[in-house]
Design goal:
Elements (H helix, E strand, L loop, with lengths): L37 H13 L4 H27 L2 E4 L2 E4 L1 H19 L16
Antiparallel strand pairs: 1-2
Length: 129
């Protein structure tokens, strides 16, 4: 670079500043997604403690636990509002009843797809370590 551009008699050199940032720590592969509820995160940890899942199975587990959370949210609303709500034409079933039912079915279906619906310890082929 030509030092005369800056009106100085000495050449200008740029040196990069040393980075004060720490290198990012890799995410914990067993960490539950942050958007899941505390009970769903506990289930995530309990399942991954005993089972070794492939990435596509982890996605299935996440979707199953999201359905678990949705069912619990619907259940809380039903507890507050009741099984029926008043509409323009009188009382009708609370829409959350079907949301809870469908979400619970999706959660259980996810567990079945992962072969986690059986009672007892995991089979030796699926156990960690």
């Amino acid at each position: 670079m030509d030092a005369s551009v800056f009106g100085m008699g000495h050449p200008v050199t740029a040196t990069p500043r040393p980075s004060s940032k720490k290198p990012p720590t890799p995410p914990d592969p067993l960490a539950a997604p942050a958007h899941l509820s505390a009970p769903a995160r506990e289930l995530w940890r309990a399942i991954l403690k005993d089972y070794q899942l492939e990435p596509h199975h982890m996605a299935t587990l996440q979707k199953a636990l999201e359905a678990f959370d949705r069912a619990e949210q619907a259940r809380d609303i039903i507890a507050r509002e009741g099984l029926t709500v008043e509409g323009r034409y009188g009382s009708r079933p609370n829409p959350c009843v079907s949301i809870e039912r469908d979400s619970r079915a999706a959660f259980l279906q996810g567990l079945r797809q992962l072969h986690l619906d059986l009672e007892g310890p995991p089979p030796p082929s699926a156990r960690r370590g």
